[in-house]
């Protein structure tokens, strides 16, 4: 954990170029832009609901899809009610874990970036509500489902995507370095790109293995 900031700097500056704020933003544009988009959209919609719809009122009065102004002191979809302070701590830890997952990947691919961006944007959106109001504003009322908001749905979609990515790759038990180059005389050949880091997948006797993050593809 103490070496994590150094890993971020080394990973971002792996091209040998001088690390600058601009180069950092460009390197991680997908995560940053998506997280910002989710955060802004979440906060804007909550503001509109608070200003235009009285507390506990619904629009329309009936129907499968309604807008219902509620206050949630629990976690996503109304569970763990009254646990605002512990959930603030959990949210901060969760954001840190997501950052660790992202920055410890040699080459995060676009789907991992999308997953992390969705979750971080949603987590920060709900975290701001908890810190500022002591509760989270929920308003999306769909059928029998508990009332939720854009941040909740963003976190869930990002988490499902992250689980899917990890299900498609498992750690490789071998510590041998896989030759990165492909030659006609080699017994190795490329089978595409890793779902986690987007590096080249190599066929070996043990199966398809990522040449960077050492994960093994599952058929």
Notes on the protein architecture:
The structure is a single chain. This protein is an alpha+beta fold and 219 residues long. The protein has 2 domains: 4-167, no CATH class; 169-219, no CATH class. It is built from 6 helices and 8 strands. It has helices at 4-12, 21-27, 29-52, 84-103, 110-133, 150-167; strands at 58-59, 65-72, 136-142, 169-171, 190-193, 200-204, 207-210, 215-217. Strands 1-2-3 form a 3-stranded antiparallel beta sheet. A hairpin with a 2-residue loop joins strand 6 (200-204) and strand 7. Helix 3 (29-52) packs parallel to helix 5 (110-133), helix 4 runs antiparallel to helix 5 (110-133) and helix 5 runs antiparallel to helix 6. The longest helix has 24 residues, at 29-52. The two termini are 33 Å apart. Residues 172-186 have low confidence and may be disordered.
Layout of strands and helices, then pairs:
Elements: H1 4-12, H2 21-27, H3 29-52, E1 58-59, E2 65-72, H4 84-103, H5 110-133, E3 136-142, H6 150-167, E4 169-171, E5 190-193, E6 200-204, E7 207-210, E8 215-217
Helix pairs in contact: 3-5, 4-5, 5-6
Walk across the major sheet and give the strand order.
Answer: 1-2-3
Low-confidence stretches: 172-186
Q: Based on Cα principal axes, name the global outline.
A: elongated
Q: Mind telling me the C-alpha Rg?
A: 21 Å
Order of helices and strands: HHHEEHHEHEEEEE
Approximately how much helix is present in the residues? 40-55%
Number of continuous helical runs: 6
For the secondary structure, the number of strands is 8
């Amino acid at each position: 954990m103490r070496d994590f900031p150094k890993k971020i700097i080394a990973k971002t500056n792996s091209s040998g170029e001088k690390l600058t704020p601009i180069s950092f933003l460009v390197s991680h544009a997908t995560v940053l832009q998506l997280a910002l988009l989710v955060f802004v959209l979440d906060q804007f919609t909550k503001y509109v609901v608070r200003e235009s719809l009285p507390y506990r009122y619904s629009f329309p009065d009936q129907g499968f899809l309604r807008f219902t102004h509620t206050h949630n002191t629990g976690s996503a979809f109304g569970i763990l009610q009254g646990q605002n302070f512990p959930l603030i701590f959990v949210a901060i830890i969760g954001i840190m874990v997501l950052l660790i997952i992202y920055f410890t990947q040699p080459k995060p691919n676009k789907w991992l970036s999308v997953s992390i961006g969705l979750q971080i944007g949603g987590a920060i959106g709900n975290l701001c509500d908890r810190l500022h109001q002591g509760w989270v504003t929920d308003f999306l009322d769909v059928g029998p489902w508990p009332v939720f908001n854009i941040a909740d749905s963003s976190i869930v979609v990002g988490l499902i995507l992250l689980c899917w990515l990890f299900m498609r790759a498992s750690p490789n038990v071998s510590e041998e370095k896989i030759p990165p180059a492909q030659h006609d005389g080699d017994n190795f050949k490329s089978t595409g790109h890793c779902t986690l880091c987007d590096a080249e997948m190599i066929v070996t006797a043990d199966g398809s293995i990522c040449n960077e993050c050492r994960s093994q593809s599952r058929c």
